[in-house]
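pinging the channel bc i need a second pair of eyes. not urgent but kinda urgent?? the chain im working w is below, pasted from the shared doc
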Amino acid sequence: MSFVPVLHAELIKIRSLRSLLWALCAVVLATGLFSALAGLDSGAGAGEEDFDPLFSAFFGVSFGQIAAVAFGATAVSSEFQGGGLRVTLAAVPRRGRWFAAKMVAIAVPVLAVGLIAGGVSLAVGKTVLGADASSLTWTEGLRGVIGCGLYLALMALLAAGLTALLRSGVATLSILIPFLLIVSFVVGGVSGTIADFLPDKAGQVVFHGTWDGALGPWTGLAVTALWAAGALLAGAWSVRQRDA
């Protein structure tokens, strides 16, 4: 079976799992909602120094990424339930081809939904911030929207690769969700250290108008991409070497 039919089959699997569709909806809802809440509680008018309207507008991505991670983990872990992977590999014996199609089937919907979430977050954030968003340029906004789609897709792939390695969505979420919350809310304000190169903090530089760390917006996303690539390579190795 060639790649395109395999990809089509994987997309059908995703459409048929209601939990995955809800996870995609949650990406948009969580991103927009928490961006609105952040805008209400921040701003130059609130007396905050070094106020960053771009980061405030895209603050909700820190919560939307949880849904993206859950989507990636669930999409892969479903293959390890009830002998699903054995059935899949009986139809597609070439494991590498199946794994590549599965990852594309995960990345494409999250990228599309991430772009929508980015647009919603920007619109909601600018509306809530009002005059405080006047310094936010359209190039920064466009960068944030594109970065939102890319970042969420990369985080979903990171979760998918780790799930393929661990063969457990629960184990993946038990590792990633506490890790992301700790990094985002405890280590998030520390720059100029090794924390700059952690997957979420590096990728979220794209949502900052100004940044004092070692990475820029696109180099930060490149670091996140390297983390995702490492997880995918480990996952692909596990799929090739271990029994279904």
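so The mean pLDDT is 89. and The radius of gyration is 19 Å. — does that match what u expected or am i reading it wrong
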